[in-house]
Amino acid sequence: MALTLYFHPLASFCHKALIALYENDTPFTPHFVDLMDEGQNAAFKRLWPIGKFPVLRDDTLDRTIPESTTIIEYLAQYYPGSSNLIPDDAEAAFETRGLDRFYDLHIHEPMQKIIVDRLRPEGQRDKLCVEQARNVLRTALGIAEKDMARRTWATGERFGMADCAAAPTLFYVNMAVMPLIGAYPNLSAYLDRLTERPSYARALIEAEPFLKHVPK
Q1: What is the third-level CATH fold of 3-78?
Q2: Among 102, 142, 204, 212, which is least packed by CB within 10 angstroms?
Q3: What is the dotted CATH code of the domain comprising 90-213?
Q4: Do 76 and 85 touch, CB atoms closer than 8 A?
Q5: Is the confidence at residue 65, as pLDDT, over 80?
Q6: Where residue 206 falls among pLDDT bands split at 50, 70, 90?
């Protein structure tokens, strides 16, 4: 098979890439990488020395594509399907890309900082960094909450790349950082729609055996 996705089913950015692949039933080979395994870690870093998930390998075009947003852009250009995750219209595409970055940088990133800090030994935790991350997260969630009061999906009535970004981000925020249902009812309802979407439901089923490892 031409495409291989190197990933871990617990990694939120991998969920984002998987949603895009599943949305269009794009044929690919999933390659699970356990970074705790010395041999697998070394092999993965030979492919992508940065060593971060996800990475897409296209043997047909001899390309290695890291980073979830870049992977979705690459799939849209070289392996398009019936679900156009990046609109053809320039203005709509601009909004989609903007919201994709919003969810990644202002919700996903602080969420990860909070969760990763819990994995550190007690004496190495950074309370100030966590509190700063929480403040950024609350501000960004407030912005998204207002937007989703009048939208079905991130940009309106059409599912796209920004929703691929929002799904795992909001899932882990709700699961491990703060429940959305009370303070963010619009986002909570949006998350329900995202988790019911067949593409993300499939990714979550695959992640289920690993979710117990997420520190809460």
Answers
A1: Glutaredoxin (3.40.30)
A2: 212
A3: 1.20.1050.10
A4: yes
A5: yes
A6: very high
For residue 53, give both structure tokens: 């998930």
Q: Is beta strand 29-32 parallel, antiparallel or unpaired with respect to 3-7?
A: parallel
> Which residues does 183 contact at the CB level (< 8 Å), separation at least 6?
141, 145
| Burial bucket for residue 159 (CB in 10 Å: 0-12, 13-18, 19+) | buried
Residue labelled with tokens 């990644």: 104
Per-residue model confidence as pLDDT tens digits over 93-141: 999 999 999 999 999 999 999 999 998 888 888 899 999 999 999 999 9
Please give the radius of gyration of the chain, using alpha carbons only, rounded to the nearest integer.
17
| Sign of the alpha-carbon dihedral angle for 140, 160, 171, 215 | negative
Domain ranges of the chain: 3-78, 90-213
Separation between Cα atoms, residue 111 and residue 178, nearest integer Å: 10
Q: CA end-to-end span of the chain, whole Å?
A: 38
DSSP 3-state of 146: helix
pLDDT for the residue 17: 98
Provide φ and ψ at 196, rounded to 5°: -85, -15
> Distance between CA atoms of 211 and 114, rounded to whole angstroms?
16
How many angstroms separate the CA atoms of 88 and 70, rounded? 17
pLDDT (tens digit, 9 = 90+) per residue, 1-15? Answer: 599 999 999 999 999
How far apart (Å, rounded) are the C-alpha atoms in residues 146 and 34? 39
